[in-house]
Structure formats: C-alpha cells, structure tokens
Amino acid sequence: MILQMSHVVRIAASGIVLIAVTAGTLYWRFFREIQVQTAGPQSNVEVRVFGIGTVEAQVLSKIGFQLAGKINSVEVDQGDFVKAGALLAKLDDDTQRAKLMKSEAAVRQTSANVLKVQSQRDRADVFYQQKKSVNARRQSLVGRGAVSQEAAEDTQAAEEVARSDLKVVEADFTVAKVLQDDAAAQQRIDAVLLAQHELRAPFDARVIARHKELGGIASAGEAVFTLIEPGSIWVRAYVDEALAGGLAVGQKAFVRLRSESNNLVEAEIVRIDQENDRVTEERRIYVRCRACNPLHQIRFLGEQAEVEVLKTVIPEGLFVPLKFVEGFNGHSGTVWVIENGRLAKQRVELGERLLNGLIQVTTKLPAGVTIVADDSADLRIGRAARPLAGSGS
After folding, report:
1. Residue 388 near residue 54, CB atoms below 8 Å
2. Given a cut of 80, is residue 224 above it in pLDDT?
3. What does the alpha-carbon distance between residue 285 and residue 71 come to, in Å, rounded to a whole number?
4. 204 in the same domain as 159
5. What is the CATH number of the domain that holds 208?
6. pLDDT band at 24 (very low <50, low <70, confident <90, very high)
7. How much is the pTM?
8. 51 and 355 in contact (C-beta within 8 Å)?
9. Within this chain, do residues 126 and 153 fall inside the same structural domain, yes or no?
10. Is 176 exposed, middle or buried, given 0-12, 13-18 or 19+ CB atoms closer than 10 A?
C-alpha cells in the first residue's frame, strides 16, 4: 500500500514539474516581455536612384564619299583624334583633275574672246559716233542748200549702218560674256567634283571605326569611317519609372563602368526623354561626365554602365527597411510598432526609397510610438515589448 502511494506521488510530482516546465516555456515563448530592434531618425540622407545603361555618343556620323571610286590613300585609323577639315581619305582623281584643267583652259579661252569682242565693240562704237557726227553736220547744211539732198541721205544711211553694226557687236559681246560665265561655272563644278575625291572631317572628332582600306572601291554614300564628337559622350541609362519622380536635368550623378567597377565617375543629367518605354516601364535619362579626360575609359561605346543619380538630400527623416512593411502599395504600408509597451500594427504613409532597402516613413507618429525593425522575435499584437538598448538611433 505504501509502495503504491509512493508511486502515485512520484507520478503527480512529475506531472507538476512537466506542467511547470510547459508553463514556463509558454511564458518565455509567448508572454514574456521581449526586446526588439527599432527604427530611428537619420540625418542628411542621400536619396539616390539607380539605373543601368550603356556608353553612347550624342554626335555620331558615318561618313563616306559623295561619289564612287578607288581609294588611293587612307590617312587615319580608329582611335585617332582629328580636327575639323582634316584629310581622312582620298579617291583616285586623275580623270577629274584632267577635266578641271580642260575647264580652266576654257575659262581662259572665253576670257580672251571677251576681250577681243570688247575691242570690236569699242571700234564699232567709235565708227558709229563718227558717222553720227558727219550726218548731223550734213543735215544742218542741207537746209541752207550747202550740200545736196542726195549727200545728206547718204550720210544718214551711213549712220544707220554704223548703228546696226554696233548692235551686232554688242550682241556678240553679250554672247561672249555668257560663254565666259558658262565656262567659269563648269570650272567650279569640276573643282567641286575634284574636292569630293577627298574625304575630310566635318568636325573635331575621334575615329571609332574604319570600314574601308587602301585600294578598295567605295560606292557613293558608303560609310568609310565612323566619327564621334568626343565631348558628346554620355551614358544612356534606364530608370524604373516608379522611382523616376523628381529627376531633373542638372542633378549630380555617378557612373560606374563595368570595366572599372571600383571607380565612380562624377557626372550630371543632361537630358531626360519625354516619353517612357511602354514595354519596360522605364524612363531614359542621359548623363555626361562633368570633367573627363577624352582618353578615359568612358570612350568605349556600348560598354555597360551603372548610374546613381543623387535626387535629393533629406535633412532628417525616419526610415525603415522595406522588408518590414506589409501590404506595400507604392505609397503606404503596415508596420509593427511599440505603443504603450505593447506590440501593435499601424498603417503609415511612405516616401522616398533608398538603394540600401530603406524607405522613408512620412507619417508623423504619436509620442512614445516606435517602429519595430526586427525579424528575429515572435511578434504578436498585444505582446509586451520594449526597444533594444542602442537601437533606434
């Protein structure tokens, strides 16, 4: 009997211990006050927008000859810097040079002919003036009977003939001048065509591609070189339109090239496209280096680049990791808070997003209410909680 009672006591004691342990565990797990990390205000927070794109040139020209021919010389290669007007390449121009020489001879010939006809015109004019003077005297004398009527008619006819001869020579002079102008125009045409056998730089440029070689045949309009204006290099980047609000020309940006991942190049926004990409829902922006050496690595077109635009600086604000925001819809969400020593949920308005995953809380919280930024604790509405020492700063 005693043994049976002892056994019952042991079972009861074990049960009590088990209940106590279970109760302690439940209390420790679900009811004890916990310490949690909280979010605190931050000062001078830079709001940056990230974009990815490629190095491009605003001024890019594929240039070639205006006429076809065999390339006789190529003066530059890719990577060379050239001044405006510099000779880049030249076509075989022997035939056109001969045509120009022929047109120049024609100009000299027509000029000599103009001088000849001009002399003839001057001579005819003198002859006409002499006949006109004689006729005037005879006509004045015929009225007084000093000369016969027949003589007066002869001098009148001689004046008319001299005037007609002068008009013929003047017409010849006009024709000679027209032929001279025509020869001069043909000379200019031949000179222009000869100049078109030379390919010259239209602006201060860098050669980024050479498409033809010495001895090759170039068709009219076919690209021989690709040129860019070095100062027009920029990075075309794509930014999520949800983050693009507030971007403006002139804002500071930082470019990180794929080939120089440890180097940030300071730049600024110089253009923002007025139309977003409807498929990718992105906005195109263009940033240009503020003070770059033309020999910098940014000279390689098509290279991938990362862009960070400094959109604004927030003097002071409250930020929380976006992963702790429930039901985020782009401008608001629900967060855990400590209110009167207890955990609760609260809907808050949200603002700027940072590249490190934080988002600004724009709702002004009541005094004593702090936002929880902790995923290591068991959060339940109504549970006692207090901020972890040192958090929230």
Report:
1. no
2. yes
3. 41
4. no
5. 2.40.50.100
6. very low
7. 0.70
8. no
9. yes
10. buried
At 163, list the tokens. Answer: 């005037």
The helix, strand and coil proportions of the chain, stated in percent and rounded to the nearest 5, come to 35, 35, 30
For residues 141 and 155, the answer to whether their CB atoms sit within 8 Å is no
What is the reported pLDDT for 155? 78
94-142 vs 149-195: helix crossing angle, rounded to 10? 160
* Residue written as token pair 């076509």: 91
Strand residues in the chain grouped as ranges (E): 34-36, 41-57, 60-63, 69-74, 81-82, 87-91, 198-200, 205-210, 217-218, 225-228, 233-240, 252-257, 264-272, 282-289, 304-321, 332-339, 342-353, 358-361, 370-371, 385-387
One-letter amino acid at 103 equals: S
Asked whether residue 179 falls in the same domain as residue 104, the answer is yes
**Are 204 and 191 contained in the same domain?**
no
First to last CA, the chain: 68
- Supply φ then ψ for residue 330, to 5 degrees: 105, -25
Distance between alpha carbon 59 and the CA centroid of its chain, in Å?
7
Please tell me whether residues 138 and 86 are part of one structural domain: no
Q: Do 188 and 101 lie in a common domain?
A: yes
Q: What is the pLDDT of residues 268-319, one digit of tens each?
A: 999 999 999 999 999 999 999 877 765 554 568 899 999 999 999 999 999 9
| Structural domains counted in the chain | 2
Which residue segment(s) compose the domain that 159 sits in? 94-195
Distance, CA of 377 to CA of 34 (rounded, Å): 8
